[in-house]
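User: structure tokens for this one?
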Amino acid sequence: MYYSYLPYQNQTRLWLPLLAGAAIITAPFWLGGRNNCCNNQPYPYPQPYPQPYPQPYPQPYPQPYPYPYPYPVTTLT
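Assistant:
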């Protein structure tokens, strides 16, 4: 009678080629060597976000127009 040393030996025969293929495919990602695969460049940190439109830096909100008061201002004492 045939005795299998590994349980579910028929199902485990495919794991080694699958893991080897996955390791070969993903090797440039987790090795990160000197190759330029997948634009493997270090991120230039810190890098500011690009502004979509120029910001009015000194006054970020519109200043009110200096109009005269419609009534005389008196101080309450």
